[in-house]
Amino acid sequence: MCMNDRMARWLMWMLVRCLAAALCIVKPPLVANAGGESGQTNALVGSVPGIEDWFGAEVIYAEGPFGPAPYDDPESVLGMPATEFYDPLAELWGGAPVRRVKLVEGACYTDATRTQKLVTTFGDGASVVIRLGRAARDDPAHPYGIDFIVFGNAFFPTIGFADDNSDLNALMFAGGCFCEPLKVSVSPGYVGRPGQNATDWRTWDWYTYENGPYADCAFPTQAYWWDRTNRVWSDRPMDFLKPVNPVLGDFFESASAFGFSVADAIALYDGSGGGTGFDLKETGFDEIRYVKIEGGAGMLGGEIDAVAAVRPMELGDSLTIAPANVGKEAAKLVFLKNDGSGETAVTIEMKFVDVVARVSAAPLEDLPVLQSIAGEVMTAVDLAVAPIISTGPVLFEADVTFHCDSRYSGGGDDLVLLGWAGSTWVSMDFKFDALVRAVTLKGLKELTRYLLVQVRGPRIAVARQADRVVLGFPVMAGWVHTLERTTDFRGWDVLWSARPTEAKLVMVEDLMAPGTLAFYRVRVARSVEEQNRLEETK
Ligand SMILES: [Ca+2]
Ligand SMILES: [Ca+2]
What we know:
- The protein is mostly beta strands.
- Helix content is about 10%, strand content about 35%.
- The protein is elongated.
């Protein structure tokens, strides 16, 4: 094609602008991995507005016998678990009377102000029905399948004395959890079925966890984070809406056998505030609003502090994985987007792991320069697997699924998944699942930062002079670009198609440009050969 100088200069200027816009995913530098001891953000605790809804909101029925004061008020089971307690006996042994609720000291007596009772003791035949502030749902995104948590005042006995001055790094377990099991039942409440009465909870559908788990058992409440590095308490609260990985129960029971510190156990809680976790799956209920606690039939003398609905994890959180989780539903770790949309960002399914490890999924907010891809980032995550109480690298194998934006309607051929290789981004071979709109990498033995990008056609600069139309746009290496034209948005005519081997600017003259209004687009897709290659690797 031939053009006069003025037009060529103008077109170049348009193309440079267009290219700058097309390569707009530019925001250095990289963020550090948010894993490690300070990895838990614990967003939903303490002073967060509406947090009280996640706990027991009302006692709709209570019948004793309960314990002697201050263990006699059934309403002590409402609200958040206790974080501190006042011990009137401390003066006898010269200790600090106000102490933190922790693995080795459960909630007892009253709160620090000596005005609030903390826990309720259940005698023989005692029962309390609690309405949760919000429904607890059997949500597949919940960690380890657990949907609600009951907090008691169980604790782990230690070798030697335990108080707030104890060095928890040096304090060792002296055996399994001190438990006083209580029976737990759940109900969706009144659903209007024949025979049901809205004001009589006895007429509703109930499910009892006859064979456990039981309340006031593992895991003891841990209210604050212990700073293992500096051997001091942190005032950072633990997360009462995040369960402890239930397979760690056996691990803790055998802990004293192989020298296990309280600090180790807190690290294994991975930011959770403890409590006994319950899965709604076995109940057949999709969601429940009521929890009943009962003493009796050999189960009595136990205490209840609180009941909580579980929150799904999101980007910025971490979860633990243990060899005993592998092959079960609990090995599927789900992290939602951290924008409140409730959409899943990434699912990590562990196929193998050799030790108990922490799996973190941090949002990747400051994206590095992408030289060769123009498009919209749908998922940007920094994934990591790290040891918790062991040393050395964790051996594992994981299938990782990156979920597209829910608005994505493509067939996967305009997606690119990039993995960070230390100094550059590398395009990864993936499998696209149209049903769940997600791409999966299988058999990963290490994790890194990932970007799932929907490639967009470039912006087109149009230069028109007399009856000539010249179109300019940038192209990316290795992708098939197809320039098309329409006048009615029903049919598109292909003007030009190519798979460039390097990124560059392309100019195409439309020799058949119609006299009427015309529209142009450039479609970008993976090449047929590459599609076939991916098919073979599936
Ligand atoms: Ca569940
Ligand atoms: Ca107890």
